[in-house]
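Bumping with the actual sequence this time:
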Amino acid sequence: MSEESRVAETRRSVARPLSPHLQVYRFTLLMATSILHRITGGALYLGMILLVWWLVALASGPRAYATFTSVAASPLGILVLVGLSFALMQHLMGGVRHLIWDTGASMDVASAKRLAAGGLLASAAATVALWATVGFVAYAGAGG
């Protein structure tokens, strides 16, 4: 038996996973925020379809715009818009976090965890503040 075939046979007989998986990695806040940053980027990309629809409806006249606003004002439409608002805020906070890391700051694990948690809280707070403002403006505009 040649040296190469003996080495190949030895490698084949070892029973171990091909790559590290769930048994090796622990799900952490930093992993979650990294994954969430990627997901929100994709959601924002798809959300551009709504922006284009709004702009086309706005340019197409009152009837098309009324159709858009009726869909956007439905419970599902509001849920989608709130979700996109959160995605925007979360993606923005993730970008700020990476910008801070680019300066070399907050690179230790404890600081990175605080930064990630702060980004989540800030994005939730910014989303609530945005929709509270939208609700206030709509209420004031309706003569309330």
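The tokens above came from a reply further down the thread. The chain has one domain: 27-141.
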